[in-house]
User: Fold this.
Amino acid sequence: MKTLANEDDEQLIVQRLLQIDSTCEGRWGRMTAAGMVCHLNDSFRVAIGEREAQSRSNWMMRSAFKWVGLWLPAKWPHGVKTVPECDQETGGTPPAEFAADVTELLRLLEIFTTQPREFTWQPHPIFGEMTDKEWMRWGYLHMDHHLRQFGV
Assistant:
């Protein structure tokens, strides 16, 4: 299973990310390419404690939904709403300059994957507490989902 803990998987994600530009159109959803990059930035910021997000978790989300989302060998569905703190239309960081936002995403990805960790994992707003292994799997799946959204 692909994970950001695997250097080859991480490099493939980075290569795919670098194929995106501000003119790419999404295959589903309302996000722009610039909004998607900022959404990923906000999501990583929440994970590493640079941004707060209110918990929307419950027992079902922390157990069955988390397991299915992380370990079932299926693509994530389209149209699942994110938390407001990571939604560029409600409370997330608005896009600024595309190249700078991508550079920031690469910075956050580096922090997220570097060991030893210089931060403490924060609870995922939906999945709750997660292990290193779960965060690395989530990071890969989340980026893969949105890169596929934009055709790469």
Observations:
- The chain has a mean pLDDT of 96.
- The helical segments are 7-17, 33-48, 59-71, 98-113, 132-149.
- Residues 7-19+47-149 form one domain.
- The chain has one domain: 7-19+47-149.
